[in-house]
Amino acid sequence: MLGSEALNNSVDWLVQQARAEGLSAWTEETVPHTYWRRGEESASIVAPLLPANCTAECRQHPLKIVSLGFSSGTPAEGVQGELVVASTFDELRALGAANKTQGKVVLLNPVWKGYGNTVAYRGRGAQEAAEVGAVAVLVRSMSSFSLGNPHTGGGGGDEDAFTPIPSAALAVEDADYLARLVQLHGRSVTVNVKLVGTGAGGAAGAPKTRSRCVVAQLNGTDLTHEVVLLSGHLDSWDVGQGALDDGSGLAISWRALALLQRLGLRARRTVRFVGWAGEEWGIGAEQYWNVHRNGAESIILAAESDSGVFAPKAWELTGTVEAHAYARAVGQLVAAAGGVGAVVTGGEGADIAQRDPSIPGVSLDTDANAWFRYKGEWDAEGPAGAQFQGDYFYYHHSTADTMSLLDPGQMDAALATWTAFAFVIANVSVTFPQGNATVRDEAALLAALGPPPAAVQRTPAVCGPDWVLPPQSPPPAPPPCSAGCKKCVSPFAWVIVILSTALATATATRWYTLRTLRGSRVPLLAPGREEDAYASLLTADDLATDALPPPHELEAAAMAESAAPRPPITM
Predict the structure, then answer these.
(1) Does the pLDDT value for residue 564 go beyond 80?
(2) Quick one: 399 and 467 in the same domain?
(3) What is the SS3 string spanning 17-67?
(4) Which residue segment(s) compose the domain that 466 sits in?
(5) Active site annotation includes 279
(6) pLDDT tens per residue, range 35-74
(7) Catalytic one among 279, 304, 316, 561?
(8) Predicted TM-score (pTM) of this structure
(9) What total number of domains does the chain contain?
(10) Last residue of some domain: 171, 200, 229?
(11) Cα–Cα distance measured from residue 342 to residue 316, given in angstroms and rounded to the nearest whole number
């Protein structure tokens, strides 16, 4: 968590790991911040005692809670009050106007309508409840499903001003139980909430400190000032391990650079990794963009993976119609090499959202409703021991966010897709189109793009991979090896094939990209000048394909690479 010793140690470790891979690596400071910490937390129903109508062995009923970020604390004895339940802010304000909330504990129990449509109750709940005189607020956890684990997150205060009253997230089951007691059965329920020691960390009046983001990069060969940025965030909430949010996204972003370095692939443009510190507090990228917004370099694309890493489905892109045409041409290349080449609208992330809006933004769309391929093993019926993964928000900001959720095969597939797109865009001569997004709806975008030209067709001359991406549940069995193949291509070799293909067919890719742009319904070039523009973009360097081995030699090298022993690429 931001400001903690664990985060500080993680920053040092990641810099060391990046340098050990031969990457340039350093740190950059965040904006100043204080240190919020979690104390001892508990809650219980103190009246009525349970079981109902008991005369002996009566007990208080414990409630499963977790403090919300930036919550203020309570005295050692906690705060106590009669419970008032509201499903909406309007309902809460009406209860306040009727003088039914003064000195009470408020439970906000909204109907789950997706994270984006529900999270305001967590973010504004403490402020809204304080305004109607409540002494504490409990908020139904932001989760689509629960097994009794409450989900934390920012509670509406910030690192300069903690919440006006103590605030905690309540497990979905307990929220439903309390709502039934109060609203359905008309019971009077008294609740005690203890958040002892929650609030500012460090000595009283201590000055603000700065945390550090990690930066690593591979310099480009000639267009070094143009940067393709891949990122994830280092910080997490402290209740779990932060494997989904955002250890997995951080891993594929920095391992993309390590993978290119190990393969000896250097793009024309610089490929940069940033590990943000402070995303959960909303300050992770503020200082970085302040420093780099008007620098000599030009960030041509900013990507952030921060939605967990499951089976990859597509690149999500926020950009101009021209940018989408370009990206979908690159996607055709990646798909032809056996990867995931789909591109859809919607690429954003909390940290890259602070960039200049003319810079295209990218995120990774993954299928949380997929299946674990347990230990990568298969049997005749499919994946051995396959388990349904559920949804990202089953685990988000809770004790359930652990390494046990991550599937190695899915991580490999996501790494391959993330790396392949970034490398091709960093290496192609035509700079990725810049400009504010004009179309954000997928249907409107497709209408603007018009019918796409025929896809570039290519079948790699290698045997099928020993695993496949699971596009549906349960995932299909892997394809059989081709005749005479001693060993199917490993995921690592598959990445080599994708990237080698990108190099070997660079000129064709540029022609295809331009043809896609020309086929769009957006006036990109003056009538009659299309061919002149194409010729000017195909420079002598673009046509110097003699410097590259033919595709079959690259693929043979990929096969040899897959058979050669090498240290594992750890996540």
Answers:
(1) no
(2) yes
(3) HHHHCCCEEEEEECCCECCEECCEEEEEEEEEEECCCCCCCCEEEEECEEE
(4) 5-31+211-449+459-503
(5) yes
(6) 888 999 999 999 988 777 777 778 889 999 999 999 999 9
(7) 279
(8) 0.78
(9) 2
(10) 200
(11) 9
